[in-house]
Design brief:
globular; Rossmann fold; alpha/beta; 12 helices; single chain
Length: about 300
């Protein structure tokens, strides 16, 4: 492990954090059969690996699928514009990107944060993020081994719905934000997406089981059956009717912790204009899904962005 990386992470670890356990033992336990000859990334002890955690570590750390996700997802101009507008200026700030994956947020936003820590459970993804400039830490977002109140900005991009306990992860993220700091999340699917209603339900089920890539919502990026199956296994809260995030998740979790909250439901084709009241527009697939749900189905943007500021 790089001594610089180790010493930088150590500044913000809790006193009881258990770091640098045997790497091969950890990956064997998680059924991730890729041995490492040397440890370059600090690893926090994770006593229990849920099936969802293993799925996420496997897919996003896969040497083929992980880079494809980095290239194809969250790489649009709108994505970068939206995140830059939400963050403002993070130069000379301490940033923690929870569930950073291969580093999409930093790759899109750029800038010169004082430190940008990438937290993830996928070693392979963290290796890529490290090349972009992240200070990596392999840890469980449900139990962050980090001290309270040190980060100027904490980000979670398309993370919560990949976690077993969304409220727990959100509260852990909130804990490490300093007074006056920002917690920003985006691209978690809304529970009221129209895909979960009407005729769209059996089509949603069919597209998971059969290689009919023309079906609404079927991925045109992950076209190999194993690849698509692994990706879908990571979507812990995007599988069944009613799955996804709700405004109540943010309000009930963050307001008691002293945060003021702004929520922005949106489609993925919108950039910084989201924060001027434009949620974007439904694309062809969105319109088709809405039609299948029934003409009376209410508008339902794909995702929600949350900008929460901790009281000073």
């Amino acid at each position: 492990m790089s001594s610089t990386t180790s010493s930088t992470v150590a500044l913000y670890l809790t006193s009881d954090a258990c770091i640098d356990i045997d790497t091969e033992q950890l990956f064997d336990r998680a059924s991730l059969v890729k041995s490492r000859k040397s440890v370059r990334i600090p690893i926090c002890d994770i006593p229990y690996w849920s099936p969802g955690m293993i799925a996420n570590a496997t897919f996003f750390g896969d040497p083929e699928f992980g880079p494809k996700y980095f290239r194809s997802e969250n790489s649009s101009e709108e994505f970068g514009n939206r995140w830059r507008a939400a963050i403002g200026n993070w130069d000379d700030k301490i940033v923690v990107d929870i569930g950073c994956g291969s580093g999409n947020v930093y790759a899109a936003v750029g800038g010169l944060p004082r430190s940008i820590f990438g937290i993830d459970i996928s070693y392979g993804a963290l290796e890529h993020a490290m090349q972009l400039g992240y200070t990596p830490l392999l840890a469980d977002a449900h139990n962050l081994p980090l001290i309270d109140g040190f980060a100027d900005i904490v980000t979670l991009n398309a993370v919560l719905h990949h976690c077993d306990d969304m409220a727990r992860v959100l509260s852990q993220a909130a804990r490490i934000v300093k007074p006056g700091g920002l917690l920003i999340t985006d691209e978690d699917p809304l529970a009221n997406m129209p895909e979960y209603r009407g005729l769209a339900l059996p089509i949603r089920a069919a597209r998971k089981r059969f290689p009919m890539y023309w079906l609404p919502g079927r991925s045109t990026v992950y076209t190999h059956p194993r690849e698509e199956a692994l990706r879908l296994a990571t979507e812990l809260h995007n599988r069944n009717p009613g799955d996804g995030v709700t405004p109540a998740l943010y309000i009930d979790t963050l307001e008691p912790l002293g945060f003021s909250i702004e929520l922005y439901p949106h489609y993925h084709n919108v950039g910084d204009e989201l924060f001027q009241g434009d949620p974007g527009r439904m694309g062809f697939t969105d319109n088709l899904i809405k039609l299948l749900c029934g003409s009376n189905a209410p508008p339902a943007p794909q995702s929600i962005a949350c900008i929460a500021r901790k009281a000073s």
